[in-house]
Amino acid sequence: MKIGNIDLGERPVMLAPMEDVTDPSFRLICREQGAKMVYTEFVSSEALVRNIASTARKLNIDDRERPVAIQIYGRDSEAMVEAAKMVEAAGPDLIDINFGCPVKKVAGKGAGAGMLRDIPKMLAITEAVVKAVNLPVTVKTRLGWDCENKIITDLGPRLQDCGIKALTVHGRTRSQMYTGQADWTLIGELKADPRMEIPVIGNGDITTPEGAEEAFTRYGVDGIMIGRGAIGAPWIFHEVDQYLREGKWEPLPDSEKFALLRRQIRESIERIDEYRGILHIRRHLAATPLFKGIPDFRQTRIKLLRADTAQQLEQIICEIEENFFGQ
């Protein structure tokens, strides 16, 4: 699969953009584990244009992450164009436009998935951004605003006509948020549409190597993105990559999984500071499947998520290894 001149190989699996998740450390770890491309946290075009420092820091990328995409969102065409030019100067491999974020503070203001209620404006912004930069531009969106307005099969070719180089579709509507089960049926129909010449990438509920294989074989997509399935489990890319290549997969040893979690903690603290770095990493510690299914784990889990120093976290993790994993 190629996006512009970026060759991602056959059946690529990518790390989806996620706010407060896809920081530089996590992106690099996922690349090392087998993700073929990674995406930054989404960047507010208006905040970037206003030179908000915390937003500008999201443009920092490491050459070891490449290929890497920076994703922007907004509802104003002029701000989106200006932000796209600023992003291009930061040197990513491509620019992605977020037309899929469902959260109220974004979609409720007409940005992200909110654009699914104003298709002419969505298309105008897309075309303006494509014309403003030389990098490949892609779009990530959803099936539609709600179950009565699943418009992606009509919308996909229109976005393609704006000049984008790939389209990613999350198999839910905005009204579903992240509830229920992702519906890949319309993603498959879009991919099968003879009008579609650009890559179609599917996203939603890919949490196992077998699920990734099914997405490719059943729905014919060119690539897939893994989002929440990677939180606290960057090794999923290793597992999926091995399964797609060999038809079987072996889980990483638990010791290596613990090492990756420890690395995330350490690098989060180094990037921010001890207190905020630990707050940032709690989402991964809460979601990791490494601890799922452990009997009588509730109190230990509470302690883990309440720890506020690196020393406390390390002590608890050592106890978990010793008490539940025999390490």
How do the helices and strands line up, and which of them pair or pack?
Elements: E1 2-3, E2 6-7, E3 13-15, H1 24-33, E4 38-39, E5 43-44, H2 45-49, H3 53-56, E6 68-73, H4 77-90, E7 94-99, H5 104-107, H6 119-132, E8 137-142, H7 152-161, E9 167-170, H8 185-192, E10 200-203, H9 209-219, E11 223-226, H10 236-246, H11 254-271, H12 274-287, H13 298-306, H14 310-324
Parallel strand pairs: 3-11, 4-6, 5-6, 6-7, 7-8, 8-9, 9-10, 10-11
Antiparallel strand pairs: 1-2
Helix pairs in contact: 4-6, 7-8, 9-10, 11-12, 11-14
CATH topology label of the largest domain:
TIM Barrel
Assembly classification: single chain
* CATH homologous superfamily designation of the largest domain: Aldolase class I
Distance between the termini: 42 Å
**How many H/I helices?**
14
What is the helix/strand order?
A: EEEHEEHHEHEHHEHEHEHEHHHHH
Please tell me the overall pLDDT: 94
Q: Just name the CATH architecture of the largest domain.
A: Alpha-Beta Barrel
E-strand count: 11
> Judging from the principal axes of the Cα atoms, what is the shape?
globular
CATH class of the largest domain: Alpha Beta
Beta fraction: 5-15%
